[in-house]
Amino acid sequence: MLTPAQKTNSAALAFLAAGSIWLLVGTLYGLVSAIQLVAPEFFNNIAWLMFGRSRPVHVNTVIYGFVINMLIGCGLYYMPALLKCRLWSETMAWWSFVLWNLAVISGPVSFAYGYSQGREYAEYIWSADLAITGAVVLLAINSVMTILNRKENFLYVAVWYFVATFLWTGFSYPLGNVIWHPSTGAMTGLLDSIILWFYAHNLPGLVLTPLATGAAYYVIPRVARTPLYSHTLSVIGFWTLVAFYTHIGGHHIIQAPIPSWMRNIAVVHSMVMAVPVFTVLANLWLTMRGAGGRVLADPAGRFVVAGSIWYLITSIQGSAQSMPELQRVTHLNNWTIGHSHIAVLGFVGFIALGCMWHVLPLIVRRRIYAPRLINMQFGLLTTGLTGFFVVLTAAGLIEGHGWYNGETVYRTLAEMPTYMGLRAAFGMSIIAAAVVGLYNFCMTVWRGEPFTPEYVVEPEEDL
Amino acid sequence: MKMTPAIVIIGSIMAFWASMSVMVIMPAITLKVEPSEIWRPMTAEEQEGYRLYVRNGCSYCHSQFIRVMDWDLGAERIAQAGDYVDRGPDLMGSKRTGPDLSQEGGEHPDDWHLAHFTNPRNTSPISVMPSFAFLGADSIRKLTAFVQFEGMLMADQRVERQRHWKEAALQTYGKDLDSHVQWLHAMVPEVWRPMPNPYPALEADLARGRKIYQQFCIGCHGPVGDGRGQAAGFLNPMPLNFTVLRRHLVDNRYIGGLLYYQIMNGITGTAMPYFKKSLESEKIWDVANYLAVSFIGYSDANIEPTGIDASYEPRWQNRFQAPDGQGLSDERDSVGR
Ligand code: HEM
Ligand code: HEM
């Protein structure tokens, strides 16, 4: 019998499974946090559920647990598939899986007891930081070696994004988490904020975005059964992503007393982010032209297309709110929370789920147990997330304009219960989607109808 | 452009390092920040409080920097780079569910913080801040030390002011309540004392006053204004029982100006906060009228001296009868309705 580590794609499947589970755990913690913003004594004095502890569990679990796990799982499948070879080392991929998920588990466990480094998106304690760095380094080695041992000469764009993610994050993560200061995981003074937000923007910019973009580049041509529209657009989108995204971390702190040259760089680059965003979107959508019906009829394809639309909205909003004039009103309130959710769930989460539903049958060689449940999950997520976006943006504008006109936080607090109540309600819809997804995932793996995947040409480009 | 493995792998690493040297290495080398004029280091206890702040996620609801356009707590000083020297992590924060805390020190005396950390609804009825009673008394003391540090040398002056007036207040409070109230009133500038509430006590005004009372005051002064709200047990002096004021009308007639001044300005040294930032003129007059009518049973609203009537106020006749110097009145139901 083969051990799991010898079975092709077994690590990919493990990553996908973990992603599906963490989606449910993470959103439940989101609900726990959301309830406390409308009923602060609901979990009164239950230390491990207290907002200041449940919120980082939520955020880190959905980001590191759900979306990244799922997208790595997808990539570990599509990278060898595109390169027409096997993953260089399945065992090594398993080690990355173990290290990565140990770090994710450390969230609910350590934050619950107040062991947190407290810096947003860099909360994990030092040993978890080491585990994540280790996992990333292993993934980088594994991807590079797979590329070097490939059978297909041509490197498809999805592969660039996948391997580059780990090459960047291998530096970015330990740097941003100030791994050489184990006790605080931080620098001191303003430099700490500068480094933190450099990293905290590389997290969406150089981890989530490239993984999701790579996944979309994989799924859309396959579902549309057309070659990718343009190699040139792929190249422009890839290089401008790393060139611009790495400069915009400062837009999180433009109102803080950072040097003005950093502020200017951050704002300008946030505007030119339009280039990587629109080249990628144009490339994907033009690939679909004439095949739109086919893509939207495919449950997985629909997820990916919806994700690309959320990407458009997120990015337009992102560039707009980087302008100091607008940020006077939108900074520090629920507006930003709305942006985070359409970004991480709408753009990245939707594409992760779409790609997962697309590759899962290919990995387990069983048909999806119930394609209708995928559509149901899509409906639930779209409802919940649209509700989130509307409610949080409205709440943010009330807060932001109130403050700008001289109201205190305490006065706008009185306006919030309706909105926070609605957000908790819409959250239930997202949680229901997580449950449906997990059920469908398990049933597919255990009960799905076995089949031999018909050979669909791997995507290629018109050169 | 042909994307070979070498270009993808080496190129992306180089592109990343190029950006990183601009956005991280350059600031790390060039950013030489001198401590600002309000800077001082933390004491050991404040440092421990800060660790608790970091570890319990206070920063998800509180920011640590004041911007040019801010009006709320701490708006007296815009943050400067030199304020953060030696602080690690510096946790600027990205969300204000609660107010900015960078100038929190000395805003309130320690007993307010004890009541607040134990359960924020004690002092701030509509707060959504979590209760921190589970941390235990020792940790709450450290957290208090840290929040009293916030604002550094500027905070030290305010903390000193709180201490000074707490001592003064406790001197008379320790004797008896009436001499304490006399002292409180003696501290109010003379111009505010023989002053009536200039606006009528209409149903609508009182309803607004009641809403404000429930959002801001009820935790301390209690549902019936007797000073026995849920925070009372933590506070010294205790919140005022408004009924006592029946014995302390100025010239046996006036109370409106006094109430206004005390609500606007707060009583430094005691838990009574200032409300000047959250409540502006009309709201303070309304809540003052509500206190007077509901808990003192007498309002000086709209009595002489009056000036030219405000254009929008309807005609209203004040029928309240002032109590005598002992706080007693002939007609128990003096509301005049
Ligand atoms: C997979 C789905 C989700 C993702 C990817 C996600 C992601 C995030 C992120 C990135 C943040 C940090 C926001 C920031 O600091 O700007 C956040 C905060 C939050 N999320 Fe979610 N979330 C998801 C689902 C949910 C659900 C279902 C709920 C509620 C039922 C929820 C409630 C919250 C709350 C209450 C906060 C804290 C907001 C605050 O500090 O005011 N989230 N989430
Ligand atoms: C053109 C692209 C984008 C631009 C210019 C942009 C800009 C911004 C800005 C200015 C903020 C700070 C808002 C504030 O605090 O006032 C922000 C926050 C955020 N963005 Fe974006 N964004 C973009 C795309 C994305 C994408 C693709 C993601 C996720 C994959 C994302 C995730 C986030 C998150 C999670 C936050 C919240 C950070 C926090 O906790 O405060 N953004 N973005």
Write up what this structure looks like.
Chain A contains 16 helices and no strands. Chain A starts with 9 loop residues before the first helix and ends in a 16-residue tail after the last helix. Chain A has one domain (10-449): Cytochrome C Oxidase, Chain A (Up-down Bundle). Helices cover 74% and strands 0% of the residues of chain A. By secondary structure, chain A is mostly helical. Chain B has 337 residues and is mainly alpha-helical. Chain B has two domains: 44-159, Cytochrome Bc1 Complex, Chain D, domain 2 (Orthogonal Bundle), CATH 1.10.760; 174-296, Cytochrome Bc1 Complex, Chain D, domain 2 (Orthogonal Bundle). Chain B has nine helices and no strands. Classes of the chains: A mainly alpha (463), B mainly alpha (337). At the A-B interface, helix 1, helix 2, helix 4, helix 5 and helix 6 of A face helix 1 and helix 2 of B. The complex binds protoporphyrin IX containing FE (HEM) (2 copies). One protoporphyrin IX containing FE is lined by residues 120, 204, 208-209, 251-252, 270, 273, 277, 314-315, 318-319, 321-322, 327, 330-331, 336, 339-340, 343-344, 347-348 of chain A.
Quick take:
Chain A is mainly α and 463 residues long.
Question: What is the beta-strand fraction of chain A?
Answer: under 5%
Rg of chain B (C-alpha, Å): 26 Å
Helix amount of chain A, in percent? Answer: over 70%
Mean pLDDT of chain B: 94
Number of strands of chain B: 0
Count of separate structural domains of chain A? 1
Q: What is the domain total for the residues of chain B? A: 2
The hetero molecules present are: protoporphyrin IX containing FE
Strand elements of chain A, count: 0
Shape assignment of chain B:
elongated
Low-confidence stretches of chain A: none
Radius of gyration of chain A: 21 Å
Assembly context of the chains = heterodimer
Derived from helix and strand composition plus strand pairing, the structural class of chain B reads mainly alpha
